[in-house]
Amino acid sequence: MKFFIDTANLDQIREAQALGVLDGVTTNPSLMAKEGITGKNNILKHYVDICTIVEGDVSAEVVSTDFEGMVKEGEELVELHDQIVVKVPMIKDGVKALKYFSDKGIRTNCTLVFSVGQALLAAKAGATYVSPFIGRLDDISTDGLNLIAEIRHIYDNYAFDTQILAASVRHTMHIVDCAKLGADVITGPLSAIEGLLKHPLTDIGLAKFLADYQKGNK
Ligand code: G3P
Question: Is the Cβ atom of 187 under 6 angstroms away from ligand 1?
Answer without folding.
Answer: yes
